[in-house]
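Dear support,

I submitted the protein below through the web form. The confirmation email said the job was done, but the results page showed an empty box. After a refresh the structure appeared. I'm attaching both so you can tell me whether what I see now is the final result or a partial one.
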Amino acid sequence: MLIRRLRLDAFRRFGSAEVEFQPGFNLITGDNGSGKTSLLEALHLLAHGRSFRGRVRDGLVRQGDAALQVYVEWETEEGVSRRAGLRHGGSAWQARLDGEEVRQLGTLCEALAVVTFEPGSHALVDGSSEVRRRYLDWGMFHVEHGFMPEWRRYARALKQRNSLLRQGGGGAQLDAWEAELAQAGERLTQLREAYVASLQPHLVRILPLLLPAAGDIALTLQPGWKRQELELADALLLGRDRDLALGHTSLGPHRADLRFALRDLPGREGLSRGQAKQLALALLLAQAAHLAEACGEWPVLQLDDLGSELDRRHQQRVLEVLAGSGAQVLVTGTEAPAGLAALPRPVTMFHVEHGAVMAGSGPV
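What the results page shows now:
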C-alpha cells in the first residue's frame, strides 16, 4: 500500500495543505507544535475512523471553520489507484471512496490500512483492556472476513440484553437475547483466539530486535469469562442476578483482554515506560507483518516523534526492521532520527512550518 497524495483542509492549524509522499521512508520535520503530527493524524482518521489524540470535536476542526476535510490517493500492491475523502464537522460526517458515497465509516477503514506508533501507544501495554481489544479487533477486521458479522451480532445482542437488564428483566425476551449473545460470543472468542495464535510467530521474530531483554513471549486471550469452566450461555445464566443488580452485562467478549508473558521481564505492570513503548511497537509491527502476510501488502507505517519516544540505540533497531519490510514509512521528528542516513532505502524529506508543508532535500 503506497500513499501518493494527502490533502488537508481546516485540519487543526492547517488551513489547506497538500503532500505527495514517496515510496520508502518519508521524514517530516518541524518544531514542536508546528503541525507535523497532524499529517499522520489525518491518515489515521481515515483508516481508523477516529483520531489517536481524542475526539473530532475536541480541536480537530480548525477554529472558525465548520468542518475538516481529508483527501488521500494511494496505490495497492497490484498498482490499482484508489482515492478517499472524509468531511467531518464534529458530529456529522460525509465520506466518499473511489467516487462513491460511503454509508458506513467501516467501508473507508477497510480500504485503507495504516498502523500508527505515537506517544500514547504505550497504553497498548499498560493501559486499559479496551485498548488491547481495539488492537485485536482492528487486525481481525482486516484479515478475517467472518469477524465483522459476528462482532455486529454480538454488539446487537449485548445492547438488547443490557436494555432488558435495566428494565428489571424480560422473561422470555431475556432468555432469547442471552442465547443469541452466547452463540455470537463463543464464535467471536474462537476467532480472537485464532488471531492471537497467528500473531505469536511474528511477535517472536520481531521482539528480540526491539526488546531483547524480554526473552521469549507468549500471547494469550483472556476471553472475558471463565471459559475453561463454563460455556458463555451458562456463565450468563449464573450471573443474571448480579447483572440485574448492576444493570449491565458484566462478563463476555466485551470484557476480553490480551495477555502477554515475558520470560525474562516482569508483567506489564512491572515494565518501565521505555520497555512498555518497545513492547507496544513490537506488537504493532507484528500486527502489520501479519496483515502483510494475510493480505499480500504492507499497511502504511507511521512513527510519530520517534526521536523522543525511543533512545538512539532503539531508534536504530526500529529503522533497520522497517527498512527490511518493504513498507512505506512516515516518520516525524524535530530532527532526523539517529541512523536514518545509513539506511539503504531512499528518504524523502518534508518540513512543516507555520501551517505549511514544504518538500525538502539535502542530508538526512
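Response: this is the final, complete result; the empty box was a page-load delay. The radius of gyration is 22 Å.
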